[in-house]
Amino acid sequence: MRQHLSLEERSYLSERYGLRLQDDPRPCLRSITAMELLDRAACESYLDWLGDYIGSPTRQATASTLVKRYAAIAVSPALYSMTVNNKGLTLELEHCLLETPELPEHNPLGTKLPYLSVSSYGISLPAPDQRRNWREHTVRELFAGHLTPLIRSLSEIARVSKMILWENALVRMVPLFKEAIDSAEDPTAAARIREDFRYIAREAPGELFGERRNPLSALVESTGMDPEGDYKHRLRRTCCLYYKVSAEYCRQCPLPQESRE
Ligand code: SF4
After folding, report:
1. What's the CA-to-centroid distance between 72 and ligand 1, angstroms?
2. Contact, 224 vs 174, CB < 8 A?
3. Please, which domain of life does this record's source organism belong to (predicted)?
4. Mean pLDDT of the chain
5. For residue 225, is it within any domain?
């Protein structure tokens, strides 16, 4: 039987993450599939356009900003669906369209960063007593099959370190787990979400990320989330370069005060 998301689940993903699960294109200034970002010429052209549009002075800063955004609009809803609703959301790179709509007149200062439309997706549910296997499969699909190729391509094309890009993904994942733990409907659900975070960020083998080692495990301490899911303020390990776009430094910026521009 084909599985699906409930109306309520779809609405939440749309309201919280801006995710459009439909394939009718909307008028856009520019759009590109995630798959096209694996192609050097298409990726360079898109990064240069996006950099101009958001006011980023370098491809490094643009690629870094884009990965942060992608983690918020694609990775976070997929993980939310897995950990809160127990529904694996399969997103294929070719079906993920990054869209930059025109800024609405009523909100000219809204974000200029892209939104995600997904033209086709799959849903999987864990079989009874098989949640661990299902989770392993879901995590492998999302990371090794989806995010890692994008991170590799953007890292190589924009010459920005993979460590920065993985930390960007992680800093977008942490709030989703934190919020989900805080608002879990019962202690069992909170424990499951906490365990999912620990598994992804600390215990999952590198193979699920298409890497030799888990790229998140060396970075998770600095996110402030401990293995129990408690949160403390910490500095990032890497600076994500967004200050070059926004002229602001975040509270987690690791750059020493004296080196800031
Ligand atoms: S200040 Fe924070 S958000 Fe800004 S570039 Fe540094 S790490 Fe990134």
Report:
1. 16
2. yes
3. Bacteria
4. 92
5. yes
